[in-house]
Amino acid sequence: MAASAGSFSNLTDEDFILDKRVIGGMQQVSLLIAAELGDDVVLNSPVRTINWEPAGEGHRVTVESERASVNARFVIMAVPPNLYSRVSYNPPLPRRQHQMHQHQSLGLVIKVHAVYSTPFWREDGLSGTGFGADALVQEVYDNTNHGDTRGTLVGFISDEKADAVFELSAGDRKKKVLESIASFLGDKALDAEVYYESDWGSEEWTRGAYAASYDLGGLHRYGKDQHANVGPIFWSSSDLAAEGYQHVDGAVRMGQATAARIVAANSRVAAVPVA
Ligand SMILES: Cc1cc2nc3c(=O)[nH]c(=O)nc-3n(C[C@H](O)[C@H](O)[C@H](O)COP(=O)(O)OP(=O)(O)OC[C@H]3O[C@@H](n4cnc5c(N)ncnc54)[C@H](O)[C@@H]3O)c2cc1C
Question: In the chain, what are the domain boundaries?
Fold first, then answer.
């Protein structure tokens, strides 16, 4: 992750990747786009099958989801690679994709938010940012909402440490997590008014956090083909990005690059009726 970002400092540099925040949170972006698209947005309807066949110079595609069936000339799979195999492809994907997708998996991170009556750490002259490789909560940040008088900290617990605290009762886990945050910012951190854990590993359509990566040697072995489209199917996830890999920055770059590839491909083929 650090290597693909150019260096670890690019992940913490105030001018790169993590340098901007969205007022109202990232979901604001989806909500505003959905408002523009209106009835074209179909929610709670996972795609189950992608059927495609040659048609003229291009392809004819039918995408089947639980509540909609869509005809198109191209498909963009804008989901993390670990979920590619949740969809059935007709015809089946080629050998290279079958193999490649089995070498990409999601990590495991628990994201915790703790809300306080004030951002007390600022009164102590602290930024709220903390890193501790050996700490239970390995990263802590000031995640206070824009304009909020309360203070919000976000922390992350990863991998085997996440496995271990999931073995605890909810109460014991909360106690240990707040104690770990307090080790960075003092005992006031123990008195959270709101405590919330995001359990990404239990989300069926995500299955982990932060993102998908290759197993050892996987990128070397399969990387050259990870952007290769299969007929009309284009793969576009932040987890396939180079710059911005595993970040929103990479998702935007992949979106722009994939759109450009499809525009170019579309201009090469004769228009095919998709009704
Ligand atoms: C805990 C956590 C913290 C993070 N923090 C940061 C951060 O601080 N800064 C940053 O830049 N990035 C951060 N990221 C990474 C960032 O969220 C991702 O890089 C970005 O969301 C990827 O965008 P995407 O469009 O490629 O895919 P996603 O945002 O993963 O969107 C894929 C969508 O497809 C849906 N889907 C999956 N399968 C199907 C299906 N079969 N049919 C229909 N829909 C389907 C999913 O439900 C999901 O809504 C974080 C990620 C996590 C998990």
Answer: 1-36, 42-105+213-268, 108-202
Q: What is the C-alpha separation between 50 and 71, in angstroms, rounded?
A: 10
Contact 51, 64 (CB under 8 A): yes
Q: Residue 272's pLDDT is what?
A: 54
Beta strand 69-72 with 58-65 is antiparallel
- pLDDT exceeds cutoff 70 at 224: yes
Please tell me the CATH superfamily of domain 42-105+213-268, with its number.
Answer: FAD/NAD(P)-binding domain (3.50.50.60)
Distance between CA atoms of 170 and 132, rounded to whole angstroms?
23
Overall CATH class of domain 108-202: alpha beta
Rounded CA separation 53/44 (Å) = 27
CB-based pocket (< 6 A), ligand 1: 18, 46-47, 78-80, 83, 86-87, 109, 111, 200, 205, 209-211, 237-238, 246-249, 251
Distance of CA 100 to the CA centre of its chain: 19
